[in-house]
Amino acid sequence: MNKEKFYENIRKKLNGFKKEEVDGIIEYYDELVNDKIESGLSEEEVISSFGDIDDMINEIKANLVMERSEKREANVLKNFLIILGVISSPILLPLAIVFSLVFFIILLVIVILLFSFSVSAIAVLLSVVLASIELIFTSREIGLTLILLGSGLIASSLLWFITIEIFRLGKYLLNAINKLFIQKLKKKKNKGEMQSV
Amino acid sequence: MYNIMYKEAGMKTQLKKGLLDICVLAALIEEDSYGYKLIQDTKDLLDISESTLYPVLRRLEKAKYLRSYKKEYNGRLRKYYRITKDGIDYARSFSKEWEKLFKIYKYIEEKLDYEQRKIL
Q1: Residue A15 forms contact with B (CB below 8 Å)
Q2: Is ipTM > 0.95 here?
Q3: Chain A residues 144-183 within an 8 A CB cutoff of chain B
Q4: Which chain A residues have a beta carbon less than 8 Å from that of B1?
Q5: Cα dist. B72→A9, A40, A71, B76, B102 in Å?
Q6: Along the 197 residues of chain A, how does pLDDT read in single tens digits?
Q7: pTM for the full model?
């Protein structure tokens, strides 16, 4: 394989990653390839010195997801799918199953919690507004109505606050699971070696 | 709770990650360097692979422990890395931390030695 073919291969296999991420990888490898050629290796030898390309790509993917997970704007679902793709080899199937199960159970719990809290937040808001309207028309007690409305708004915003916090905590948790499984994956792949970082 | 589990599972890899970072930084203290040379220079210590070095460099640059620049070499551009003041400070604090660890290591060795003599 010559180097152009090699880069084309990397690009193809990293399809779906951001352009700047892929460009960075290619630039890095191109420099290494040139340096290795200048140290006396042939192009062929250099390319094969990187080992199996699929192993290499899997490690690159895992590293990219790891890097993404450190950022706040990480897309946990997309990262999950990438990791699942990396694990998809038959030997790692048990790991893939455990990973998917853990991920989806937590995701399900979070979605249910988010749903119930946001629904109750809306329900509290609606009922309090309706009750206030009713109260002001039937009793004309402005003070009482304001108290009712005020406490309703506080309760509702509290519920919203909890909803948002659950969302953030959920994202954090799923991110942590992604990272944990990348580490597990790397440990499995090159056991005992220093490079299994 | 989960956080603790997570941390424990990752401690060993965390340690290795830290060692990689510090070795790459240390390799840059004397002079600026580039990918291939960094691998050659730290090979005896770490057996670092090409695909492992890349995220290390990215991480260190993001942490502002080093910065990169491109320089022409042999008709092409090569990316060089230079350690920053923050990077040197980090290396220094790391080495201080290990002085303490080394004392603990010696203490453990001493106790193990004692245990050994007791058996004999």
Answers
A1: no
A2: no
A3: 173, 176, 179-180, 183
A4: none
A5: 27, 20, 32, 5, 43
A6: 788 899 999 999 998 888 999 999 999 999 999 999 998 989 889 999 888 888 888 888 888 888 887 776 678 888 888 888 877 767 777 888 888 889 999 999 999 999 999 999 999 999 999 988 888 888 878 888 888 889 999 999 999 999 999 999 998 899 888 888 888 877 766 554 434 34
A7: 0.69
